[in-house]
Model the fold of this input.
Amino acid sequence: MHSVSSITLPTAPRRATTIVGALALLALASVLFACGVGSVALSPGDLLAAVADILHGSPSTLAATLFELRLDRALSAFVIGGMLALAGVMMQALLRNPLADPYVLGVSGGAAVGALAAMLFFSAVWMIDVAAFGGALSVALLLYLLAHRDLRGGIGDSSLLLLTGVIVAAGCGALVTLMLSIAPDGRLRGMVFWLIGDLSGTQLRWLPWLLLGVALIFSTRAARAINLMAMQAEAAATLGVRVGALRQGLFFCAALLTAGAVSSAGSIGFVGLIVPHACRFALGPDHRLLLPAATLTGGAFLVLADTLARSVLAPQQLPVGVITALIGVPLFLLQLHHIRRK
Done:
C-alpha cells in the first residue's frame, strides 16, 4: 500500500524555490510601487530618504509621512489579497470545483449582514469589523452544523455542503437587501462601498497576518494529501489520507481566511477566483507550489489594484472591488478561452 509521501505530483524543489522567490520579489516590488504612487508621487530617492527618516525615529518630512500611510495600506492590501487567494485554492480543493471561490458558501454574506447591521444601528468603526467577523463565523458554524456529515465523509462529495451554502447565502442576501432599503441616505453610500470592497479606511492589524500564517502552515503541511484528494478522492483514504479531517481543516481555514479578509475590507471580488486559476494554469496543479504561489500572487494583485483605485482619479478614490472586477472578468474569460483551446 502506498503512503501519502510516496505518491505526489512531481515538482522539482529548485524550480519551486525559484518561482516562490521570484513571486516574493514581485510582491515586495508591488508594495514599494504602491508607496511611491499617488496624488503626490515619491521618487526612489524620496522613498530611501523616507525609510532613513523612519529608521532614525524622525518621520517628520512629507515623504516619510506619505510613505508610512501608504505602506500601512499596501501591507493591508497584500495580506487581504493573500488571504482571499489562499482561501480560493482551499475552497476549490474542498469542493473539487474550479469555479469555487471564498464566497461560494455564503461566509461573506454573513459578514455583510453583520457589517451592515453595525453600520445601520451603530457608528463605531471597530464595531463594524467585529460584527462582520462575528457574522462570518456564525455562518461558518451554521454550515458546519447543517453539513457536518458531508465534511466528515471520505468520498469527497460536497453536494450537500454546496447546496446548504447557496441557500444560506441567499438568505443573507435577502437581509442585506432589506437593510439597504431601510438605510438612511447618510449611511447608504458607506454601506454600498463596503459591499463592493473598499480599502480606504482599512488599518494595519495583526489578526489577518496571524490567520494567513496559520492557514498557510496548515495547508502547505497538508499539500501532499490535498494533491491526492484532488486527483482521486475515492481512493485517497486507502492511500493514507484522513479525508474527513482534511476536509474539515480546509473548510475552517478557508472560512477564517474569508472572515478575516471580508471584515477588514468588505467583499472584494474575483481575487479568490482568478488568482488560483491563473497560478494553476501557469504553474500546474501541485498544491505544494500552488498554495504559496497563489498567496503571494493574490497579495501583489490586490496591492496593484488598490494603487490603481486610489490614483486613477486622484484625489477621488474608487472602491477596489470595482477595479478587481474590471480586471478579473476579461482575465477569467481569457483563461477559459485558453483552457478550451487546450
